[in-house]
Amino acid sequence: MRHEVSFLRDILAASSKIEGIAAATSEGSFLRDEVLPAAVLHHLTVIGEAINPPVAGTPGAAPGSAMATDRSSPPQDRARLL
To answer: CA of 7: how far to CAs of 12, 18, 19, 66, 72, in Å?
Structure first.
């Protein structure tokens, strides 16, 4: 399992790439381009996966999902990560 610091690095790298795209592109140019929105979506996906890494022992399950939820404890507050 990867260390939490590596997930934070992934989030910072992806957000920096999104920021670079936004800074270098006008809204109209962004909306007319086919590649830039796909690139931003990719980086948002990286961020989402870094925020909700799979739980050990549950292939592909994100914490808090139906497959990975421990019903004996309250759900975690994910808003603090943002």
So the answer is: 9, 17, 18, 22, 27
Give domain status of residue 75, yes or no: no
Distance CA(22)–CA(15), nearest Å, equals 10
pLDDT tens across 37-74, in order? 999 999 999 999 999 877 666 565 555 555 444 545 55
pTM of the predicted model as reported, rounded to 2 decimal places = 0.63
Give the number of domains in the chain: 1
**Could you tell me if residue 11 is inside a domain?**
yes
Kindly state whether residue 14 falls inside one of the protein's structural domains: yes
Cβ partners under 8 Å of residue 5, min gap 6: none
